[in-house]
Sequence to fold (65 residues):
Amino acid sequence: MESYEEVKRRVKENILRDPNLVGAHFILGLFSLKTDDRDSAFEEYKILKDLDPEKANELFNMIYK
Fold:
């Protein structure tokens, strides 16, 4: 089974290959929230605003709940 850090690394690699991957940005935002890194989660929110406003709002609501 892959570690949390390994999965996070793979998600970041996918984003480097295709910066428009909505799901990858959303997952990275969730990973950031899980580690109490709201600043990084908010950065993913800002990216998602242009890619998928609905997913961006979902992440935003999780950041500020």
